[in-house]
Specification:
D-Maltodextrin-Binding Protein, domain 2, 317 residues, disordered N terminus, alpha/beta, 5-stranded mixed beta sheet
Amino acid sequence: MTIRRRTLGALIVAAALSSALPAVLAQDFPTRNVAIVVHTGPGGPFDTLARRMAELLNKDLGWQVRVENREGSNGVIALSSVMREPADGYTIIAIGNGTSNNIALGKTDYTLDDIEYLSALQGEPSALVVRADSPLATLADYVGKLKAEPDSISVGGSGTAGNDFAHFLLNEKADTVSTWIPFPTAPEVVTALLGGHIDAAFMTPSSALAQIQSGDFRILGLSSPERSQLHPNAPTFSEQGFDVDLFLWRGFGMRAGAPAEVVQAWRDGLVKIQADPEWAEMMTSLKQESFTLQGDDLKAVARAEIEALQRYNAAGQ
C-alpha cells in the first residue's frame, strides 16, 4: 500500500514517485564501488531494506554496492562516519525518525542541512502488542487498567524517536502513566514479551510478523491515522478515540554538497529498482508499506519531526 496521507498532522504530504526516468542515469556515476551505511545490526528492518536495495542496484543498474553496519549511539556513529566521507555520493546512509531525533536532541554536530535527503522508500506504524493470553483484550482494557492503577503495566520496545515516541503520545492522549523499558534490538523485545518479562510492547508489526501471523501476539492498536491494508483487522489508536498519528519511515541520504547529477542518479536509481517485481515481492513478504518521498518533500517531513521531537524531549522523555 502506498501511503498518501498526513503524518505528524497536516504538515506531511506524501506523493507517489513518478516511474518516468531520464534517458541517461548520470552515465559517469558510479565509476567505483558504493557503500550503504546502516546504523543497526544485521537482520533488522533497516539492514534488510539496505541489503535488498543493494542487490537490486547491482542487478538492475550494474552498480557495485555493499552494505556496512556501523552500530552504536543510536545512529550517531554511523552519521558521523558518513559525514567525514567526501561529498561525492559514494557513501550513503540509512536514515529515518531516529536521525531526526539525534538532530532534535543535539546528539550530533550535524544539522538538517548537512544531509542530502535522497528518498524514503518504506515505513510502518508503531503497534501496541500483547501476548494472546494477556487479559488485555482491547485498547480500552489497556487504558482502563492504567487509569485505575498507574504504572501497573510493564511496557517495552526498541529504538528511539519511534516506538518510544508512540508510547509517549498514547500516554499523553489517554492521560495514563506507564514507564518505558528500553531494549537494544527488536528481537529482544519479542523474546521479552514471549517470555512474560514485559506485559506489552510497542513495535513495528514486521518486527514480530511471525508471532502476529501465528496468533501468539495480538495488536491492540496502530499509530497510523488509517487502518493498514497489511493488517486490516488491527484498529488504529485514532479510531479508538486517541489521536496518535505517527509513521516510522525508512530512507536514505548522503552528505550534502554532492554534484547535482550524482544526487539525481541516486534518486533515479531508487525509482527504477522500485519498478522491479522483486522489490514488490520483498515489500509484500516483509509486510512493509511504501512511503515514497524525495528531496525537499522528505526534508520537510524530517523538519516537522525534529520540531515535534524537540517538544517530546523537552517533556523529559
